[in-house]
Amino acid sequence: MTTYDDDIDAIRALKEEHGAPWDAIDPESVARMRAQNRFRTGLEIAQYTADIMRRDMAAYDADPSAYTQSLGVWHGFVGQQKLISIKKHLGTTDKRYLYLSGWMVAALRSEFGPLPDQSMHEKTAVPALIEEIYTFLRQADARELDLLFTKLDDARAAGDTTAAEFIRSQIDTYETHIVPIIADIDAGFGNPEATYLLAKKMIEAGACAIQIENQVSDEKQCGHQDGKVTVPHEDFLAKINAVRYAFLELGIENGVIVARTDSLGAGLTQKLAVSHESGDLGDRYNSFLDTEQISPADLGDGDVVITRDGALHRPKRLPSNLYQFRPGTGEERVVLDCVTSLRNGADLLWIETEKPHIEQIAGMVDAIRAEVPDAKLVYNNSPSFNWTLNFRQQVYDLLAAEGADVSGYDRGDLMNAEYDGTELARLADEKIRTFQRDGSARAGIFHHLITLPTYHTAALSTDDLAKGYFGDEGMLAYVRGVQRREIREGIATVRHQNMAGSDIGDNHKEYFAGEAALKAGGQHNTMNQFS
């Protein structure tokens, strides 16, 4: 017996209990609707996906080649099409996630219009997008199962029992489109209580993994912009605790917290840390401050001073009332941030870097793993990096160090298309191709994501279509560049009515009204041109 059979039998028994009033109810139709609605709440999704992430984390610990990946999405449809594509081309969604980027929520989903990545958007937009994404993924399940049910009916009508049994097995082993979402809560959108309340909404919407950063909430900047301000560890740990309490309150005991540090590129702090004794966490945080040693006679009104080795030190305070760290301390601060976060409730780390350089990342991870051996990273394969230029320069430097002749290249102009066919460019492209594999093996990267790729692909594809459609190509730009490719490459959206749920609705109408159902998918439906 299968789950599908079990549901049919259970509904059949229930129908018999209710007698004549339920004569119109078909048990198999109910079983189909149940299969198409496997996840009834966001918390069910959060628990299911948390279990997936924990299994994947354990698999990575055993074998670093078992890393995971995701692309950032800003709309449920984009996430849906991504997972449909993964299943079509790769056969499984295993180790493929979704990333919800605060940058894209700010840029694309705020009622204020496009905003910079500074936590200015409505905080409710974040859980709303999580819920939207999972609504579209559940609809993808419903659609694919509906297609299988139609095939099953056709096989039965043809008397093909072998085909019917095969389709039944596909129904019973169906792999859902529901995958983990790593969701960006920025710097927590306020104090720890605000962080807790928003985290609860995100978890209730289905998030099993929440990423939080150590910037000041009201001064938050994009990780790849200047002016970043970090907070003392105690402040950040309070927010990590707030997220954990939210998970535990809602019963997701294995929820995942990703602690992000922006210290590598952040040269400022809003306040000094509280220190109770030499060498404690607050003292270590303050030890990175840029200070000048003074005597009591040098003190002025309003000065703030700290003691260090028995001497007075005045931290350098900016007109903004922020304090600055000593230049060159970023990597040390990153290591302290990461070790502290892992020892105080975080599960994964995120180190925001200024370039994609495996050895730079690995150097920090090696220091972290000296204290926490199973430390693992979520890493941003950021579109803010110029990947072509960065890797061509890395290869240039490597070749020069090996004594190769690089006189034919201008290191400052390696983005130039004239280098595209060169051996240096080929070597750089190969390093880009293997970056995720190499980074996972060498630098402890468990999860590779690209924060806002679909922002760029939407703009690029729209530019391609607009250029041709409004130019000389006219309708051919759409037909050749979009529809013909959809047909030949098996892109499901070519039957857009089906993708939007028209056939599911027709089948439901037939469940509800039988032969009297008025269905949209008859012979005059132009979608039949793509059958």
From TrEMBL:
It comes from the Bacteria. It catalyses: D-threo-isocitrate = glyoxylate + succinate. SUPFAM superfamilies: Phosphoenolpyruvate/pyruvate domain. Pfam families: ICL (PF00463). Keywords: Lyase. GO terms for molecular function: isocitrate lyase activity. InterPro entries: ICL/PEPM (IPR039556), Isocitrate_lyase (IPR006254), Pyrv/PenolPyrv_kinase-like_dom (IPR015813), Pyrv_kinase-like_dom_sf (IPR040442). This is Isocitrase. It comes from Microbacterium insulae.
